[in-house]
Amino acid sequence: MVAQTSQLSVDATTLRVLSKVYGSVVQLDDRGRLDDEISVKIDFATIGSKKRPRSDGSPTTSTTASRQQPRSFDSKPPKLAPLAGIIEMHKAALAVAVLSLKHKVVAQMEEIVPKHCIIATNTSTLPIAHIAQHAKRPENIVGMHYFSPAEVMQLLEVIPHAKTSDAVCAAAVDVGIRQGKTVISVKDVPGFYVNRCIGPMSTEALAVVQQGCDPIKLNQAMLDFGYPVGPITLLDEVGIDVTTHVVNNLIGDPAKGYLGVRMEGADLKIMDDFVAAGLLGKKTGKGFFDHSDKKAKVKAIHPEAAKLIKKYQHPTKRIDPATPIEAIVERVVLRFVIEAIHCLQDGIIASARDGDIGAVFGVGFPPFRGGPFMWLDTVGPKVIVEKLKKLEAEHGPQFAPPKLLLDKAAKGELFHNAKP
């Protein structure tokens, strides 16, 4: 069945890695925006067959689509043409993360592509079911969430919505594996898995900064814990505007799949002020840190950011100067871990193993700690429950232990099915 599903429509950020299936290089004339997506038809007839591209790596056929502003989709779609296994894109028509625009792109593509063509979206925020809700063939639509930069980050989240067929999901996983990605399948909810966990962690990082923790010291302590970058640096690297979009997408009624009180703890209006001030992070040369000196190993807090941090300092809560920085780091890490447990509890991920893989390869959870669930098992569920109850009493319900964790602690069980 997978072999019969031989064509795939993909997004802009995925095209950088698609040619790894065949060893060729894809070049895009795009601006590297995380939300930007492209819709083009690619023939994957060689996947699952004995066919291979020419030995010199050159494409057997190629095509280009004129780059257009999103409004151009109101008139006519870009040209779509089949390609024979290898792709070479120099210009691309991009569709930003606006749901109404996605609906137009899907509708126009379905009029052009064969009935068996898979349409994959790399959106990091829009629910796949919402993108597919007006599609004629919703069973052919699937999420393939690559992490930026796609040519470096190893994780691929494959996100089937309720109507995605098993064959389409299997084809998406197959493509990811052939690209050399580590693939996990996750439920179609806001934030999917990794971003759903990053949201509360980023919120807590902002919370401790608003309560007086030095961002530079927090970053260094997170590096000491084993993360490849600190949480404040991560905000600058991803982009404050992008992070704001992701975080806002997680806020809402838990009954509708959002995180509710689990996104509380910090005054997130600070993010809007950063965006309004043009403090977008590394891409604009200024965010929380001053990126003007590219040679500086330790970036200084940008003066404009320092003013906003002071503006949004918590009116009553201040971290005791005697508090060990390791305890502050644990607060931030636990917010990620709490949400990872909720994801397992709610069936967003299939297993603790998938949760560990996603966290390590998607956000850089310290590999030597094994991932959030392995770390939980190492520290012990009972110990973590005690820590969370103390934090809940001090800081609020965002630290409430999930039911699954309470059950594990009560039964003396671990997440990886081994006895303590």
TrEMBL record:
Which SUPFAM superfamilies does this UniProt record tie to the protein? Answer: 6-phosphogluconate dehydrogenase C-terminal domain-like, NAD(P)-binding Rossmann-fold domains
Pfam families registered for this protein in UniProt: 3HCDH, 3HCDH_N
InterPro entries, sorted: 3-OHacyl-CoA_DH_CS (IPR006180), 3-OHacyl-CoA_DH_NAD-bd (IPR006176), 3HC_DH_C (IPR006108), 6-PGluconate_DH-like_C_sf (IPR008927), FA_oxidation_alpha_subunit (IPR050136), NAD(P)-bd_dom_sf (IPR036291)
Disordered: annotated span:
49-77
Q: Which keywords, in A-to-Z order, does the entry hold?
A: Oxidoreductase
A single Gene Ontology CC annotation of this entry is: mitochondrial fatty acid beta-oxidation multienzyme complex
Signal peptide coordinates: none
Taxonomically, the superkingdom here is Eukaryota
User: Which segments show compositional bias classed as Polar residues?
Assistant: 57-72
Sequence ranges assigned to domain 3-hydroxyacyl-CoA dehydrogenase C-terminal in this UniProt record = 191-290, 328-414
Q: Name one GO molecular function term.
A: long-chain (3S)-3-hydroxyacyl-CoA dehydrogenase (NAD+) activity
Q: Which residues form the 3-hydroxyacyl-CoA dehydrogenase NAD binding domain?
A: 98-189
From the Swiss-Prot or TrEMBL record, give the protein name.
Answer: Trifunctional enzyme subunit mitochondrial
Organism annotation: Chrysochromulina tobinii
